[in-house]
Amino acid sequence: MSASPVPLLPFETTLAGRRLMVTGHTGFTGGWLSLWLKSIGAEVSGLALEPNTSPNLFSEAAIGDGILSEIGDIRHMAAVQRAVEAATPEVIFHLAAQPLVSRAFEDPIESFATNVLGTAHVLEAARNTPGVKAVVCITTDKVYADQSWHWGYREPDPLGGKDPYSASKACTELVAASYRATLAARGNGVRIATARGGNIIGGGDWSDNRIVPDFVRATVSGSGLTIRNPQAIRPWQHVLALVHGYMVLAHNLLSVPETDASWNFGPRSDEMKPVSALLDALQGEWTPIKVNVTPGSFPETHFLHLDSTKARRVLGWQPPIDFAGTVALTVDWYRRHAEDPGSARATTLEQISGYRSALLAQA
Question: Residues 6 or more apart from 144 whose CB is under 8 A from it?
């Protein structure tokens, strides 16, 4: 992918120059989104906790440079209201969350408080702050009631969640739906949409108990890797594909009222791969490592797939990279960081520019 300057794409033109807030900007996906928005000329602010891993993308890629970065906890309504009033954003991308299935088993109250009540705080501040026009609320592919289907879940399918993380995110969807249907109109009329994304991979994630960060740590240290379920099938996609989807959704929310709804953002059916295939691809791009299989201590869905037909047809969301390209970009980022940690910001910006070039080429 080329790193040369790329003209603004139509959805970027809508967002460039606007005041935009990213909750969770110190996290993995929030960091990529913040840097992309800043690179197209948006005025970016952020609200989040301090990064909880070392290293982390926020520090390594200097995500906070040039943005209004507020460290605060979305579980505290007063902190959220202050941050939103200070930033006066036109659009809020709400990514702040407790994002780990394993951690939700260890501390379910934290997950419910952050994901459910925290979202209510963000939406309450949004509807009560003049000038806020839209909120893109990020949830997950795990909001659907597990039907053991071999086809993709669609937006009208029943919500559910047997494990604490999935349940907290399904509740998040209900909170957003309530604000969208009855509360937004009692405030400033803010438009609210939820985005249900698939399994995100890409450079800069160092979370525990995630397949790519665990692989990278094992590769760099020369140790073995333990996985839970090699045959589990997941909708793997690059973080840029999801960030792209969130930006396209925000663009549409600002201009098309009917887009205040729920949206799936996942790969095509032929891009669905088991954990074992992802590991094979990662090792093919980098180096073979020893892999051990130890069953996990908590239940997981075997087959998880989103039907993203609506987002592709209505929003025009068409990611330009496939599974192989996703793995190649991911390994390239981590390999370059391992060789030169100071390259993180340049590599991230280069990959954003390359993705944008690919979008321009397919337009």
Answer: 153, 157, 158, 159, 160, 170
What is the β-pairing status of strands 19-23 and 225-227? Answer: unpaired
Q: Please give the pLDDT value at position 1.
A: 42
C-alpha distances in angstroms, 108 versus 141, 165, 168? 19, 8, 9
Rg of the chain, C-alpha, whole Å = 19
7-53 pLDDT, tens digit each: 999 999 999 999 999 999 999 999 999 999 999 999 999 999 999 99
Closest CA to 164 of 227, 232, 107, 247: 107
CATH assignment at residue 236: 3.40.50.720
Please tell me the pTM assigned to this model: 0.95
Separation of alpha carbons 109 and 89, rounded Å: 30
The count of domains in the chain is 1
Q: What gap in Å lies between CA 147 and CA 128, rounded to an integer?
A: 38
The segments of the chain whose pLDDT lies below 70 read 1-4, 296-303
